[in-house]
Amino acid sequence: MENKFFLTNAVEKIKRGESSFFLDPKEFLYVSSLLRKQKVPYQVFKPYPMAEKVLIYRDSLPDMELLEITSKEPLFHRFILGTFFAHQILPYFYSDIMIRDSAYVVALKPISKYMQDQILTIGKIPVCWHTKDLSVIENFEPKYETIFLHVPSLRFDAILAKLLKVSRKQVLEKIESHEVFLNYEECMKRETLLKVGDVFSIRGYGKYIFRDIVYQNKKGNMDLEIHQYR
Predict the structure, then answer these.
(1) φ and ψ at residue 171, rounded to 5 degrees
(2) What angle do CA 147, 150, 152 make, to 5 degrees?
(3) β-strand 199-202 against 222-229: which pairing, if any?
(4) Neighbours of 53 (CB within 10 A)
(5) What is the pLDDT of residues 178-187, one digit of tens each?
(6) For residue range 27-53, what is the model confidence (pLDDT) as tens digits?
(7) How many domains does the chain have?
């Protein structure tokens, strides 16, 4: 884990009665395990029950806002995430991106103000920002598009090539360009074998979850069920 110093610093902040930033599942496990070892009491804030990114805090939550993003055209998770990346907004400062009829994100201040003032388009789509009460998303459930893939193996590069409809050489180029992430960490090994439950993302394409092996024949070819965040 490349950000151990950052996470250790988060532990020290929590011990002082402050809070962490938003943590992905791996970061949460690392921080919470250190807190338990040091017998530091803590609480967990989840924007909604199935949220992947959470905050750990000791006494009180930091200042944050639920922001609704509206537009005249549909907004997709990958385009919003790409826009945040283009504005160099670190993922620690905001929650999971939630898509309903509108899009929602919980952002820490002053990042929430920056988003509202500076992000006027998602891709080429003009957007408006609205501050909402957190109760709006308390029962939110993520939406996915289900994709079925027929692949010769569970090698990550083979699955990505089939999923993105590109060559394995192009997949390697994306890996070498630091555009591929597996279970919230940069993936540098194309021969990695995926496991059911793995979460992966490709910059510009979105975020996916490997849900199941639907069928496998005697030759080892498989039909996989993959969910893409909408």
Answers:
(1) -60, -45
(2) 140
(3) unpaired
(4) 21
(5) 889 998 888 8
(6) 999 999 999 999 999 999 999 988 999
(7) 3
